[in-house]
Amino acid sequence: MSTAWKIYMLAVVCFLVGTSEFMIAGILDKIAGDIGVSVSAAGQLITVFSLSYAFGTPFLMAATARLEQRKLLLYALGVFVAGNAIAVLLPGFAFLVASRIILAVSTGVFVVTALTVASKMLRPKRKEAP
Q1: What is the pTM of this model?
Q2: Which of 43, 99, 100, 105 has its CA 20 to 30 A from that of 127?
Q3: Over the chain (130 residues), what is each successive 10-residue block's mean pLDDT?
Q4: Can you tell me the distance from the alpha carbon of 49 to that of 65, in angstroms, rounded to the nearest whole number?
Q5: Cα distance between residue 120 and residue 122, in whole Å
Q6: Residues 6+ apart with CB under 8 A from 106
Q7: Closest to 58 in 3D by CA, of 11, 98, 112, 18
Q8: CB neighbours (10 Å) of residue 9?
């Protein structure tokens, strides 16, 4: 597989996991109705995701710094899938909040690692600024 193809695949997966933060905004009213909370309480799911992403990702990146990056990408995707499974399979607002935290940190770890891996794949000439 060519280097360009690998970089494009990393970009596509980054886009897909990254949309997990924003897709919930359009369906907040439906989520609130399903789990029996106010729309403003359901809106806290976005806040929880953002704060977990911002504060959790640096700590997890530091904790996993010694792992091989390819394995770290796979682990992050596995945790991302587990976070989605929690949201789908377990009932209640508390599990949805836990799911959003898991999704946030796994997304953050994946995106940061993918950007690092992609930058290492580039030829030295391509790394220079124009």
Answers
A1: 0.84
A2: 105
A3: 81 86 85 88 91 94 91 93 92 92 93 88 62
A4: 22
A5: 6
A6: 17, 76, 77, 79, 80, 83
A7: 112
A8: 13
